[in-house]
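Shipment paperwork, digital attachment
Item: protein structure file
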Amino acid sequence: MLLGKAQKIGYFKPIINTDPAEFKDVHIQTILSHFQLPLAFEDTYAFTRAEALQLLNEQSQGEMIDTIISRFKKIEENYDFTVIEGGDFTGQGTAFDFESNLLIARNLNAPVVLVISGDGKSISEIIQDGLNLFHAYQSREIQVLALVANKVHVDQANDVRKLLASQLPKGTISAVISADKALQNPTVSDIFGHLDGRLLFGSEHLSNQVDNFVTGAMQVPNFLSFLKENVLIVTPGDRGDIIISSLQANLSSSYPRVAGIVLTAGVVPEEPVMRLIEGLQNVVPIIAVNGGTFETTNKIAAVKARITPDNSKKIQLAIDTFNRCVDTGALDEKMVTYHSDAMTPHMFQYQLSKWAKKEIKNIVLPEGNDDRIILAAGRLIAQQLVKLTLLGNPTEIAASIKRLGIDLDINDINIIDPANSGHYEDYVETLYELRKSKNLTMEMARDLMTDVSYFGTMMVYKGHADGMVSGAVHTTQHTIRPALQFIKTKPGISTVSSIFFMCLEDRVSVFGDCAVNPNPTAEELAQIAISSADNSMRFGIEPRIAMLSYSSGTSGAGEDVEKVRRATELVRQQRPDLKVEGPIQYDAAVDPVVGQQKLPGSEVAGQASVLIFPDLNTGNNTYKAVQRETGALAIGPMLQGLNKPVNDLSRGCTVDDVFNTVIITAIQSQNA
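Attachment content:
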């Protein structure tokens, strides 16, 4: 939440549970890794719990606090806001955690968000624990921003929510997070880390969640009846029948998903069984251990879930749960935070999600059979950012969802096979009426409407979808041709163009046009600049337009420079409200020192946020060079100028590219 408002966020856990030489604190590792915080692990803590307890026993509490303050101040000096994680009340020394949290919060003058656990407690116990903790902090004159009751049984949640709200002082935020097995239950990776074993197969599926486990020590028909969703199967390594039937059940749509298999007694399957498994395309994790079945089952039962850096699914679920259950707007108002004028990549991506959720839109993805599309769909639905329609064969898409191990309910997405759609005939008739003047016959219309790009675009045209994202499999021409034919351009705009949002280390820049127009005229270049500036504002970036060329100001001459100079004048005439400079070289546009040397006094030079390239050759190569050499995230291309949003993907796109482009399309459609 803070990364959406401030550029530099620090993280500090004064006292960690274990010696980093033996085991690094998993909370710190996860936070630093997932949010890409530029902190070294050793700078994020002051003491291990053993070291802190030793100082306490030696009555050196003052020394402990002095060191904590010193370490915290080093972080505070370099960051806009620092989050401090207190002790977690696990294991021995819970009284020490309670007292040290109070002490640290008081000495660092830090307001607090209190979290209590409702696991295994009655409603009255949860309320009493919460009030006791609140009053303990209040009595030490520590500001309590919020009290969160975590892991509350779903049947108790409403009562706990009402009682906390009524018994806490007015203005104190209270929140209740229901127990969620997807967060509480371990992954196969968690279990593997606690077992002294070796991984035989399935390393790519170690993030599978384990909701149940069963011992496979009976005949196969009886065994199969005990399988439940996300089950971990524990069986002796010589039970080839159990192993093969488990793997087959996982592939079958008639049985629940299998999370993994643990082979006990120090035995691995015989060679024919191993060879059979090696030939399978989709194998769940199979772990071999030396211990007996009973001993191993007890170890598994004792494993506690952790949110680890590699488990992006659980991290995202935790973030989504926080955003859903906690009033982040009220919490934000209570915190004194630094508000940067710059739009950093973290702020930009945070804002994208926030904007998308303001008005949930339905986006159609014509390439519904592509794995990248399906994986992105799972993330989008899980975060409740959009509604989705996938085009393709429903049975094949359902099978792919299971094969990919995505936690996506098939009922949460709309899957349409164009040729079998109830809208097919209507779409054919509409296309014929729209294009018959262009010599399109009814037979041609029928043929075109089986094409997913035409079908998806027609859904947008008819209002059955709010926007479309395609191009993972199809070419740019194939994706946008139908849109140009009947969605057409907005009034007053004759040029369809594109922009990329370039998420650099400390800022977000808009690059246009790097994907559509090979050699735009001065008039087209001016339209591209104006459209890019308007979209820049729409996405929270103040537009300062640089019309790029190989010379700056009046230093150069030639046909190409004159085109850019003419385009700059047209922008000034048509939109005097926009800050624009051109012609200008790239270095003068983005480097403050060079900018002031070449164009002193310019409002744009050295601080351009919208960079307009003179042709496709320059733009496409530049954005790719910047992306590759700096590690910048390039979100787009986003098409601009159409009446309704249709956006194109690269055929080399990643799941993240699909995810971001769908969100941008949804936001575009809010104003379409």
